[in-house]
Each structure stands twice: as C-alpha cells, then as structure tokens.
Specification:
The complex is a heterodimer of chains A (about 350) and B (about 190). By secondary structure, chain A is an alpha+beta fold. Helices cover about 40% and strands about 20% of the residues of chain A. The longest helix of chain A has 24 residues. The chains are: A alpha+beta (about 350), B mainly alpha (about 190). Chains A and B meet through helix 1, helix 3 and helix 4 of A and helix 3, helix 4, helix 6, helix 7 and helix 9 of B.
C-alpha cells in the first residue's frame, strides 16, 4: 500500500506527547479512522517493541551479579569509613593494584615486625593485645585487620575464638569450614557472633558504632536490645537499628517446627510485611534457625529456600550455610552431598575452594 | 500519557518504597544501596548495555551510576519510582564519558592523521541482531534519547531535563533516530492487523 496521508506526521507527535487539548482529540479521532496513520502507529510500536526485546548477552550470570554487588557495596562502604587505617582498601579492585601492593608491602613489614616483637616478648600468653597493629594473620583461618587506633585482644580456646574490641575498627575474615571454633567478638556493650566470612566492626567510648557485613552473616547482640541478624550488604549503626531485620531479644529454644519464621512482632521493619512468598523472610528464618542451634531445621530451611527461589542472589549463601548446618548437625555424609550440590550450582562460587576441600 | 507510558506501568510494587530506600541511603545505610541494586540493576544494565557500544564499560558504568545515586541521594525529588532518575544519571555519565572519550580520540586522531570519527561504533560493535546493529549505528546522543523514550518510558520532558537539552532537541533526535532505524530494519508492525 503506497497511500499517503497529509497528517502522517501527527502519529509521531502523538506518540511523543507533543499534542495537547483539541489538537490531541482531533488527532486521536483521525488515527481511529485513517488506515495509513494506523499503520504508521503500528510500525512505530513495533519498532519500540523490537528495541525492548532482550539484548544479546545483556544479562550477566548470577555469579557475576553477586561479585558486582559486593564490589559496589564495598566501594560505597569504603566511602563512608575514615581513610586512615585502610579498612577501605580491603575490597578495592585489582585495577588499583599499585596502591594495594604498596599498602600490602607496608602491612607485611608491620606484620613481620609485630611477629618478631611477639616472638621475642617474654611470658607470652594466649591473649594478644595489639594496639596499633595493622594486620594479624593467625594460624587459624581467621584474618583480622585492625585500624591503627584499635584497642583489642584475642583469646583462642578449644571451642571458642574470642576477640575483645574495646575501641577502634576491626575487619575480620573467617573460614568456617576449616575452623570448628565459634568466633565471638566481645563489644563494650554486647557481642557479635560471626556466621559468615567477612565483616567489619567499630566501637568508641564504650559503645558499638558500626557493623558492616560484606559476605555471609553475623548476629549482633547488644545489652538490653533485641538481637540483630545482618546479612551480606547489611550495615548497622545506632541510628539505623530500626531498619535492619530483628530477631527475638534472647536466643530462642530449638523450635518444634523446622521451617520456622520470625514472628510478626519481631519483624518491625516495613520490608517484612510483604505477602508470601517472601524470599527475604525465608532466608532470615533459615538464618535464625542456624543461629539458634537448630542445625537440622536450618539445613532443611536453606534447602527449601534453594528449591523455592533458585534464582535468588542469596542462593549461594544458602547453599553454603546449608553445608555448615549439616556439618554441625553431625551428618557428614549429607554435608558432603550438599557440598556436591553447591559445586554443581556454583562451580566457580566464592567458596568453591573451601567446599571442594570438604570432598577430599 | 503517551502510548510509551504503558510500558513503564504495571511493575510489581516493591517491599520498601524507592523514596524510603533512598532516604536510608542518604543516611549511609549500605543495605539500602544493595536493595536498590537488586531492584534496578537489570533495567539499568540493559539500558547502559544498549546505550554504549563498548560492552566492557557496562559494569563500570552501572557501578558508577549507583555510586552517583548514593552521592546525590539527598537531592532525590521523592517520586515513587527512582528508575527514571537512575536512567537520567546513567545518561549523564554516558554523556560525560563520550565527551572525555571524544577529546581523547581527537588527540589520537590528530597524532595519527586518521579520519575515523570518535563516535564510530564499528571497532567495538557487540550487537548481533538486526535491531541491535541498527541501534549501534546511531550516534550515541540519538541512541540514548531513543532508549530513554521507547525502552524506559520516560516522557520527552523528563528526557530533556535529564540530558539538560531543549525539548525540541529531544523531539528532533527521536524523529531522526526512528527514521534511521526504520531505514536499516524491516519492521513488520506496519502490516494490517
């Protein structure tokens, strides 16, 4: 059809919202009656739909998304932390390798000097107060980075790795697959239990001032306040406490039902009031079971989470925590099966090396 | 509402509103940034991926956009969805990058005596489909304007405000971009229903 309508130009004007009032009404009426203009409108719509169709290679894989998310949150968190002490350097990109290597060399030198002083010091004990130390690499799979002003000590016992933070900032990385000890940070006004792998904590003047979780999860228990579960990407400060997910004030008894969920009264944040299915609530519930010592329940809940939300960004965390829960529950065979499941889902996951070690 | 607006409507209501998340972000809560990232990453990445010819830049531009959002959170105007705002910030970053890249390539061109244009997409073209190829053939200014309008559902006024250009320039770019695309691509929508 080669027919031409003198009002054809109005189709695009209509689409772009350039017509108003009587002009708009007249143009719409014309469009309803004119086959040529209607065809032009369909062509413009088809063009728009072609543009909206998914672009080749536009969507990144889940692992890539997780890495980019972690990189973004670490960069944002670094922008909030004070520059001295270098906590912000922990997650800088490889492209900043020159600065990082310079810092690493300085840290290595300080570590060497600190280790030398430690070895030569008479009457050393398990407690290692280290004001001013920049980095301590313990023989256990725990790495602690402290800012220069931090006042802290560490005591390693058979079942417990206890860090006492009086003031300043610490950044801690824990590998739970090779350490069976609980890691507890004693704060001036409470305590923090690590369940994951990377977190930072600060305290000043007898109070906890900030907790940031880069990976995994922690539980923060402050005196006289409800316990808080913080997951990857979460950050807590005294001013922000109402916005983070809440847990009951005291550790709950092992629940009768395995697939527990926090009670509505314990979940006062607005995000918790969504209708089911709610992957955030289910993940938190599994985490709550894990933290309460209901390892079998946690393993079941994490498995249910993986089944119900296979595309959720927390899937890798759930798969990993499920392995830990099964290990703690004393079911090594099932834990190994869960480890194989993790590796099949996330062959290049963040913790694949740790999980592979379980299967050897 | 223009016919484009329907595309942007009808999305599932989020748990915490965008304005609330941005308020939390302005208070320094990293979790809010994580939630905004989860909510808008796909759309933003898609927009930037289409808008730029260099696929290697996409992640850095997404990253830069969210960090710019964090910096500007105090100035958010409070609209229900922050997606148009995010897209506007991304478009600004793309424009700045283009200008910086343009200056850099101009210097290189002068040094090498090459006549190749700074905006020539051929060297880094990643597109596979006919539409993607045609889109990549547009100038970046036209491409960004067209994507903001047809894919993101922004009004011409919103685009003009985000790109800091007169609204007449938006209309001109849209018309020109559509004409060029239709010359390059056989659009089937013109058939009788």
């Amino acid at each position: 059809m080669n027919a031409v309508c003198p009002r054809l130009f109005e189709v695009e004007a209509l689409r772009d919202g350039r017509l108003t009032g009587a002009e708009l009404v007249r143009s719409r009426n014309h469009l309803a009656a004119c086959a040529v203009c209607a065809r032009e409108a369909r062509a413009l719509q088809a063009l728009a739909e072609a543009l909206r169709s998914p672009m080749h290679g536009a969507e990144a894989d889940e692992l890539h998304v997780r890495r980019e998310r972690t990189r973004l949150l670490a960069a944002f968190d670094a922008s909030l932390l004070p520059a001295p002490g270098g906590l912000a350097q922990l997650h800088d990109r490889p492209r900043r390798a020159t600065g990082w290597l310079r810092s690493a060399a300085a840290v290595a030198l300080l570590s060497l000097l600190a280790a030398l002083a430690f070895v030569l010091r008479p009457g050393r004990s398990a407690s290692s107060r280290a004001p001013g130390a920049a980095l301590v690499s313990a023989p256990e799979p725990v790495t602690i980075r402290a800012d220069r002003s931090a006042r802290w000590s560490r005591q390693v016992e058979a079942q417990l790795d206890k860090i006492v933070l009086e003031s300043g900032a610490l950044s801690v990385r824990v590998d739970h697959t090779t350490s069976q000890r609980r890691l507890l940070v004693i704060l001036p006004d409470g305590e923090l239990e690590d369940i994951g792998t990377i977190f930072s904590v600060s305290a000043e003047a007898g109070h906890t001032t900030r907790v940031t979780v880069q990976d995994g999860s922690v539980v923060l228990r402050l005196h006289g306040k409800p316990a808080l579960a913080l997951g990857a990407g979460d950050s807590w400060s005294p001013a922000s406490s109402p916005a983070v997910p809440l847990l009951p004030a005291t550790p709950p008894a092992p629940p009768a039902r395995r697939n527990i969920k926090p009670t509505p009264s314990a979940l006062s944040a607005p995000r918790r009031s969504t209708p089911d299915p709610d992957p955030s609530a289910d993940f938190r519930a599994a985490l709550l079971a894990f933290n309460s010592g209901d390892n079998s329940g946690a393993a079941t809940s994490f498995a249910a989470f993986l089944g119900q939300y296979p595309g959720d960004a927390r899937g890798e965390d759930a798969a990993y925590l499920r392995i830990l829960a099964l290990q703690r529950a004393g079911t090594p065979g099932t834990a190994q099966q869960a480890a194989r499941d993790y590796l099949s889902r996330y062959p290049r996951g963040f913790r694949h090396a740790e999980v592979e070690a379980l299967l050897r | 509402m223009s016919s484009r607006g329907k595309h942007a409507a009808g999305r599932r209501a989020p748990t915490t509103s965008d304005p609330e998340l941005i308020r939390q972000l302005a208070a320094g809560q990293v979790g809010a940034l994580g939630e905004l990232y989860d909510r808008h990453r796909t759309a933003l990445r898609s927009f930037i991926g289409r808008a730029t010819n260099d696929a290697h830049d996409v992640d850095d531009l997404v990253h830069a956009t969210f960090l710019a959002v964090a910096e500007s959170a105090q100035r958010y105007d409070g609209r229900d969805s922050c997606r148009p705002w995010l897209i506007g910030i991304a478009a600004q970053l793309l424009r700045r990058r283009r200008r910086a890249l343009g200056r850099f390539v101009s210097v290189l061109t002068a040094l090498r005596g090459s006549s190749r244009s700074a905006s020539d997409p051929r060297s880094v073209l990643q597109a596979r489909s006919e539409v993607e190829r045609a889109l990549a053939g547009l100038s970046e200014a036209k491409r960004i304007t067209l994507l903001m309008a047809e894919v993101e559902g922004l009004s011409c006024e919103e685009i003009a405000r985000a790109l800091e250009i007169p609204i007449g320039t938006v209309w001109t770019r849209l018309h020109s971009a559509r004409r060029e695309l239709r010359q390059a691509v056989d659009i089937e929508g013109a058939r009788e229903p």
